[in-house]
UniProtKB/TrEMBL annotation:
SUPFAM superfamilies: Periplasmic binding protein-like II (SSF53850). Residues 39-118 form the LysR substrate-binding domain. The keyword DNA-binding applies. One of its GO terms (biological process) is DNA-templated transcription. It comes from Ewingella americana. Pfam families: LysR_substrate (PF03466). The lineage of its organism: Bacteria, Pseudomonadati, Pseudomonadota, Gammaproteobacteria, Enterobacterales. This is DNA-binding transcriptional activator GcvA. InterPro entries: LysR-type_TF_proteobact-type, LysR_subst-bd. One of its GO terms (molecular function) is sequence-specific DNA binding.
Length: 126
């Protein structure tokens, strides 16, 4: 039903939602199994790390042309291997508490940059 602040389910829609969600999840899992290639490496990476990772992925592809690489850029900074179907990931922060192997890649240096007008407006300088 359409309301001022968006849409809401009808009572019948609310009854149908759980089984439909379950069916869609099962279809998604089946598609992943059918569409999965054995020689595929699936990597998740935050968008801001792409500049570092992409040349290495290209070199890996050149060294191993038989390997299919699927690279997913994400604004999310973590990965849950139990629910996300990736073989590897680049994440921010400490290594997760899990039996998986993790390697520290580099220390991050951030430099915020803005226009003088924005700085004056946002930092109280008039």
């Amino acid at each position: 039903m359409r309301q001022a602040r968006g849409l809401t389910l009808t009572p019948r829609g609310a009854q149908l939602l759980p089984p439909i969600q379950q069916a869609l999840e099962q279809m998604g899992e089946a598609m992943k199994r059918v569409g999965s290639h054995p020689d595929t490496l699936r990597i998740k990476c935050p968008t801001c790390s792409m500049r570092w990772l992409l040349p290495r992925v290209i070199q890996l592809q050149n060294d191993r042309p038989e390997l299919r690489i699927e690279l997913t850029a994400s604004i999310a900074h973590g990965v849950d291997f139990s629910t996300e179907h990736f073989d590897a990931a680049v994440v921010f922060g400490r290594a997760p508490d899990s039996p998986r192997r993790a390697h520290h890649l580099f220390d991050e240096i951030l430099t915020p940059i803005c226009t003088p007008d924005f700085f004056g407006k946002e930092c109280g300088e008039h």
